[in-house]
Amino acid sequence: MQPFAEALGATRWEPPRWDGSDAQERAIWESAVPQPDPAYVPGQVQLMMAAHLGLRWRLGFGCMGIYGSPGTGKNALLREAAAVWRVPLFTVDLSAGLDLVELVGGTALLGGSTVERVGKITWWAQRGALLALNEIQAVEPSMQTLLHDLVAERRVVIPSLDGSPQGIRLHPGTFVAVTWNPFQGRMPEPALLSRLGAVEFPQPGQADEAKILSSRLAAADAGLARPPAELVRDVALFTDLRQLYDQQELALFPDMRFALNFAAHRLAAGLPAAVRTLGALALTGAGERQRSLRQLERVIAAHYSQARGVLVA
Ligand SMILES: Nc1ncnc2c1ncn2[C@@H]1O[C@H](COP(=O)(O)OP(=O)(O)OP(=O)(O)O)[C@@H](O)[C@H]1O
Ligand SMILES: [Mg+2]
Predict the structure, then answer these.
(1) Which of 107, 203, 300, 309 is 20 to 30 A away from residue 291, measured at CA?
(2) 168 pocket-lining for ligand 1 (C-beta < 6 Å)
(3) Is the CB of 41 under 6 A from ligand 1?
(4) DSSP string, 199-220
(5) How many CB atoms lie within 10 A of CB 191?
(6) Residues 182-237: pLDDT tens digits?
(7) Any idea where the domains of the chain sit in the sequence?
(8) What is the second-level CATH architecture of the domain 2-200?
(9) Ligand 1 neighbourhood includes 75 CB (under 6 angstroms)
(10) From atom 31 of ligand 1, which residue's Cα is the shortest distance away?
């Protein structure tokens, strides 16, 4: 925890805090402040990213773009930063079919009269929170406008049935973090990108990934607790599997979640069971499935020779 807070700069600065006094609102606000995760591993890339995040927040940019492969820990980083600074974390996945009125707010007809409704994101933005907006690379135009308002104008615009839309300013303590996977090179539109100061969250190094898997296993199930040294081979396997993905021989990116699942199965149920969990990574097309499984098995067998014959008869 200490090196992470140090990297953020939290020992020297903290974001301006919301001073609302309504007891009920206060209770909601406090309940969204995450607890530090005792299993969080502040490895090399985490500290580097924390330093970027903290600097942008201190410098008053109010926003940051974080992109990278799935499961590298983008959201875990944001959660930990919110915990250190004791600010609420509001996370939303913008690619899901979202109701903009529910998110932002608007006017609604209720029993014949119009009532103003403040949506969730607006409520948090007004009160100083870390807004984590995920999967922003392919959002619809209305979400693009919302993102632009948040990042470039630091406001939320609530549409109104009658009269002009209402612009609501963000609290100075609100920080907007957006994350995405640059899958097939997809990036947000250039105007947004330049505002965001996008930084890539790299894949953690092998030693750190082993520490993360070890920490997660121990936190989830004491029976699966193992020192990182016992997971080094699994991590090396996944490093090679990611290369196979880069060569377009796999359908799914073998991320840290997959690695954790593999290690847990190996320890709890044995190697063949673990190897079978990797079949899901293979390409699915009729003409390519068998080839993909053979490639998978070749890579797995280079690390675990006993794995031969599990995926390909
Ligand atoms: N440094 C870390 N220490 C402990 N656990 C970690 C760490 N980094 C990531 N994890 C764990 O790995 C998993 C994936 O992390 P997370 O959801 O933050 O990835 P992500 O980059 O946001 O992925 P996606 O791009 O798919 O949204 C989570 O279960 C998270 O708790
Ligand atoms: Mg995420």
Answers:
(1) 203
(2) no
(3) yes
(4) EE-PPPPHHHHHHHHHHHHHHH
(5) 12
(6) 876 778 888 888 899 899 999 999 999 999 999 999 999 999 999 999 999 999 99
(7) 2-200, 206-307
(8) 3-Layer(aba) Sandwich (3.40)
(9) yes
(10) 76
